[in-house]
Amino acid sequence: MLLLRQAGAFLVLVVVLLLVLFAAAPRVDGRPVRPGLRVTEAVRLVGAPRARPGDLLDVTGRVLKPGGGEQPRLFLAGALVPADYVLRWRDRIQVRPGRDLREPAMDVVTCSRTASGGVIVARHVEGKVSGRQAAVERMAIAAPKRVRIALTFDDGPNPVWTPQVLDVLAKYRAKASFFVLGQCAVRWPELVRRQVAEGHEICLHSYSHARFTQLPASRVTLELARNLRALSDLAVGPIRWFRPPYGVVNARVREQVAAMGYRTVLWDVDTRDWRRPPAEVIAARILAGAHDGAVILMHDGGGDRSRTVAALALALPRLKARGVEMLTLSQVRRFAPAPPSEVVVAEAHGQTSFSVTTVKVLVDGRLVEPRPLAARHEGQLLVAARPVLAALGMPASWDEAAQALCVETPRGQAILRAGSRRFTLADRDLLLSAPVFRFEGQVLAPASLLAKLTNTILTVSPDGTTARFDTVSRPFSPEPPQRGAGTSFRPAWVVPAYAAIAHEMH
Asked: Across the chain, what does the average pLDDT equal?
C-alpha cells in the first residue's frame, strides 16, 4: 500500500514537472519548441502560417515579384530579433509577415515654356525595375514676367517742377521715389506732404548737396542728421535709401551710411536730364532702360526741369502700354509690398488663381529682408521657402534638373518639388493640400509646412500681411491671431502618395 502511494506521488511530481517544463518552453506563435534552436529553424519546424515574405511592388502598387519583399519579422517582447537568435526558456516569439517593398524609382521631370511666357512642368515617377510610370502630374503656371521699374527724382522739392512731375505721375498712376534735399524740404514742406499723400517714397539726398567724399566723418553724420530732421515730421513709414549728391561715393561713406541704418543706392539708367537734352531723348533713354528692377535717375529740382516733365508725359503712357509697373524703390527691391499680381496654376483637377505679392516675415522677432514673395488664395498662405529657411538657419539647395528644393531639417531631408503636390520627408512620399510652384525664381511653399519642417510656431496676422515663425509661442501684437489664422495651409499627410496621385491624375 505504501508502495502504491509513493508511486502515485512520484507520478504527480513528474506530471507537475512536465507541466512546468511545458509552460516554460519557448514558443513561436503560441506553439512550444525546445530551447537552443535558432529562431528561424523553430519557425520552420512549427510551420507558422504568418511566416511569409512580402512582395516586391512596382510604382503603381501592383505585384512585380511575389515573395520579393521583406522577409518575415520576428518579435520578442515587442523588439525585433535577428534571424540567428537562439531560443531560451520562457521566450515568446511573435511572427509577422514581411512587408511589401516598392521597387526603386526615379523622378522624371520636363519643363517647357508656353507662347505666353508661362511654364508647364510635367512629372512622373518611373520604376527602375519595371519601367512603369506612376504619379503622373502636369502643372501649367501662367506667370508672365513682371517688369517693375523705379522712377527716382533728385534735388527736390521745387515749387515749379515738383507739382508738374507729381501731376504726370498721378495721371498714369505711377509711383516714384524722391531723394529730397533737407534745405528744400524746410522751405517747401507742403510738397513733401503731397508726395507722401500720393503714395510716393521719401529718401535722403543730404541737406545741402555737399560732396560726401570730401567731407570728414563728422560732417557726413551732420548732413544726414539734418536731412532726416527736416523730413521727420513729413515722411510716413521708414526712410531706407540714401543717394549721394553727384553720385560720388566711396567705401568709407558707404560704411558710415550703413552704420546709420540707411542703404546707399545709385542708378541703372542715367537720363542725363540735368544737361537738358530734348524731351524725346530723355524719354527714349527711359524706355530703353526700362528692364525689370531698373532704377532710373531724373531730377525735379536744381534747375529748369521742363524737359523732364515733357519726357515723362511721353514715356509713361508707352510704359503703361508695355505692362511696365512703375513702383517705389522699396517695392522694386521688395522691401515694401508691391501691388499683387494674379498667377494661375492649372492642374488636371482644375485651376487655382493665386494673388502674389510680398509678405512681412519675422523670425523670432527679427525682420527678414527683403520681404519674401507670398501667394494667397482664399485665406491660404504660401511664402518663398529659401529666404525663410535661411533665416531659420536651414539654407536649402536648388536642384535644377529635378526642379526641387532640398533641405536638411530636424525631421530629416525634405524635398519640395516645384510644380507638384508631392513632397518627400525622410524618404516618405506625402501629399500637400496645395501645389508648390515657382514664381520669379522663388519656390513658394505652404507657410505651415515650413513651420512643421523647422519645428517653429507659425502665426499669421488676420489680414495675411505678416507671418511670424517663433521657436517659442508668443501672442501676436497688436492683435491676437484669429482661430486658424496661423494654419491656413494644412498638409495632408498621405502615405504613400504614388497611388493617390496616379488615381487623381488619371
From this structure: 88
- Give tens-digit pLDDT for 62-105: 999 999 999 999 999 889 999 899 999 889 999 999 999 999 99
The yes-or-no verdict on residue 503 having pLDDT over 60 is no
Mean pLDDT within 164-175: 97
- Quickly state the pLDDT bin for 47 (edges 50, 70, 90): confident
According to DSSP, residue 145 is labeled P
- For the chain, where do the domains classified as CATH 3.10.20 start and end? 25-102
Q: Is 299 among the catalytic positions?
A: yes
**Which of 406, 333, 343 is CA-nearest to residue 375?**
343
For residue 131, count CB atoms less than 10 angstroms from its CB and return exposed for 0-12, middle for 13-18, buried for 19 or more.
Answer: exposed
Residue pair 466/362 in contact by the 8 Å Cβ criterion? yes
Mean pLDDT of all residues in 269-298: 97
- Residue 205 is among the residues annotated as catalytic for this protein: no
Separation CA 296–CA 502 (nearest Å): 50
Q: Fold for domain 360-505?
A: Copper Amine Oxidase; Chain A, domain 1 (3.30.457)
Which residues on neighbouring strands pair with residue 357, listed in sequence order?
374
The residue among 11, 339, 399, 304 whose CA lies nearest residue 175 is 339
d(CA 204, CA 240): 8
Task: Report the Cα 31 to chain-centroid distance in Å.
Answer: 56
Which pTM value belongs to this model? 0.73
CB atoms within 10 A of CB 364: 13
The whole-number pLDDT of residue 12 equals: 62
- The 10s digit of each residue's pLDDT in 299-321 is 999 999 999 999 999 999 999 99
Query: Which candidate in 55, 58, 91, 154 is catalytic?
Result: 154
pLDDT at site 19: 65
CA 389 – CA 497 distance, rounded (Å): 25
Peptide bond just before 478 cis, omega within 30 deg: yes
Q: How far apart are CA 260 and CA 221, in angstroms?
A: 8
The segment(s) of the chain belonging to CATH 3.30.457.10 are 360-505
Query: Which residues are 424's β-sheet partners?
Result: 415, 429
Nearest to 204 by CA among 175, 236, 237, 182: 182
Tell how far CA 452 is from the center of its chain.
Answer: 13
Catalytic residue among 55, 91, 299, 429: 299
Name every residue whose Cβ is closer than 8 Å to that of residue 331 and which is 6 or more positions away in sequence: 148, 150, 175, 337, 338
pLDDT of 478 over the 70 cut: no
- What's the CATH fold of domain 25-102? Ubiquitin-like (UB roll) (3.10.20)
Domain with CATH 3.20.20.370 in the chain: 147-332
Q: Which of 68, 107, 70, 55 is nearest to 429 (CA)?
A: 107
**CATH fold of the domain at 147-332:** TIM Barrel (3.20.20)
pLDDT value of position 10: 66
H-helix or E-strand containing 296?
Answer: strand 295-299
Q: What is the DSSP letter of 156?
A: E
